[in-house]
Protein 1
Amino acid sequence: MERSLQTSLVLHGAVVVLIGLLVGIPYGNAITGGADAEIIRAWRAAHDGLIMGGLLLIAAGPASALVDLGALGQVVLARALIVSAYAFAVALTSAAVFGFRGLEPVAPAMNVVVFVANSIGAVGSLVGVGLFVTGAARAGRRKD
């Protein structure tokens, strides 16, 4: 993979980890403030999910050098994972702030926003990881 794409994955991964760490502040406040269990769960999901998603991007940067994809596949892989990570940042943080899970596209509007952001995150993750699997399989079959 092009070095600039690898660097982009690592950079955006670090930004998402930072967001996840910052989301730990309201998570801790919810715990110490005796918030409802559902609110604590939402903040925990945001905190843990964003840190894990960011770490996935950080790992994907150098690991992407090992996959066999064409130039377009490399760009799509990087962009899909980056868009996915930020979509989940919007979805998980909004879900915790506004108290909506976004499991269905139903009113109120903020629930629909969370649903759409979750959907974009899920599709981006599937595309990115699917390309990783495809590229790794191709690399594994390649005779160097």
Protein 2
Amino acid sequence: MEMDRRTFARLLASAAALGGVSALMGCQGREAKPEAEVPLPTAGGAARKPVSTARYTGPETWVRSVPGVGPYVSLTFDDGPHPVNTPRLLDLLAREGVLATFFLIGKNVEAYPAVAQRIVAEGHEVGNHTWSHPDLMLLSDERVAGEVEKCQTVIREVTGRTGTLFRPPYGSFSRTRGAWLKGTYGLTTVMWSVDPQDWRLPGASVVAQRMLGAVHQGAILLAHDIHAPTIEAMRTVVPGLKSRGYECLTTSGLLARGAMS
């Protein structure tokens, strides 16, 4: 029987003892620096000021979708930035006039800072996806805090933005830790309501069919911009969403619109 992604990750991860929440509750986040107002490179190499995007700071600690919001959805991409696939995706989104949310791995931001800067410069949202993509439920409280803080710091230093959204690798997290995350760092944990399982590499057409077949109002769609077939699938998905009457917003934009509904 084929094991699921989370089980596979846990078999590969070190058998760290699970920690209680008491240490987490006592952790203090680093003081956020003001957002940088510095020129960032665009796709053409020119420099311009970062585009102002919505940053959700509402009370929710944990979301999967935004019911009752109307014909709006949010495309989200995990595990980047990737030096080749992410720029290809950004080109596509720019042509379509669509914004998305990118949940970035900290060490990839450090490795490919120009790609991370381009994401922000073109108006997209960036979120925290930990520093090294571990299964957080296998880590102690202190190590979870370190993963979150290190990623938050590098995103701020590279892009000049302090994100307000967090996505746990593999969706492996607890609501108790989600509440701590909100209270300590102001981060809302964002899961998803549409998952094409593109990480299994089923092919671009299958990914597109799964996403368009399951989309609904207020959906948060999960994908991974590290996979070339996923980028190819977006050539069908984005126009398909538009033809169905959906408007793509950043996740913060979707949450803000939901709060106004």
Protein 3
Amino acid sequence: MSALEAILDTSGATPCLRAPCPGLFRDALADGALVRAGTTIGALEVLGRAVPLVAPSGAFGVATQPAGPRLARRPVGHGDALFTLDPEGVRGATDTTVATGEAAGASGPVFRAPLGGRYYGRPAPDEPPFVEAGAALAGGETVALIEVMKTFNRVRYDGEPGRVVRVVPVEGADVAQGDVLLVLE
């Protein structure tokens, strides 16, 4: 199996993404992440094998996990809720695809992702970010972590000294190789 598609349930007041089969749900997106068709929302461990879980066609909105403890691996049955989607919340969320496109057209220099994966702008959830808007950058500085297959890769800035105008991706967003991470001046 290359990937499983979550079930989109639009019968309630808010759309919901549900488990397509029993297993252990893990590697979940962070609350507040933008979900669209094809977005990897986590993985479903079935018979000891982790399979990527993607949002189906028609899925769109800001993801929120159901109330309860946040477990690294949460047991789910067929049809159990994984996320609710708030299409109205998108106005306040950062759409990393749109933001990256806008950043690509920026008049100043940009710093791009050297590889694709899940973006983390801080070393740990309770730690300050590596860089913020207004921060001065020098060569060799760590600006982010990109997770690929449970391996965290340090992304180091290797350009000329500069200042950060904007950090483009949101915490926990998926980025592709070449996506803009930082807009610089």
Protein 4
Amino acid sequence: MLSGFKNFILRGNLVELAVAFIMGGAFATVVTATVDLIMDLVGKAGGSPDFSNYDPGGVSVGAWLTALIAFLILAAVVYFFIVAPYTKAKERYFPSPEPGTPEDVKLLQEIRDLLAAQRGGSATPPQP
């Protein structure tokens, strides 16, 4: 029973998940602070970054407008400062394998060809 608990705790995925959760929480703080900074810059340019009191024709759309702008800024920050650089770095340091036949498929084809040769048959794959 204790060994099962030890295996559970030492499982690689659990540790990776815990680290990702902690890093995600810390990173959320950075992203939120960046969005607040950009919202303050929007406020400097346009008057106020908080549109909560905006109600054209008596319809309170200010809070929704503030949330929408904050969401768009958040999405832009995540995409341009995280996703795009991560994708570039991943392709640079871990390039996609070149197209072709994977090694395991090549090995299976060799086995098929050897078995066909032993039986005296043709090693050509069937045509669809």
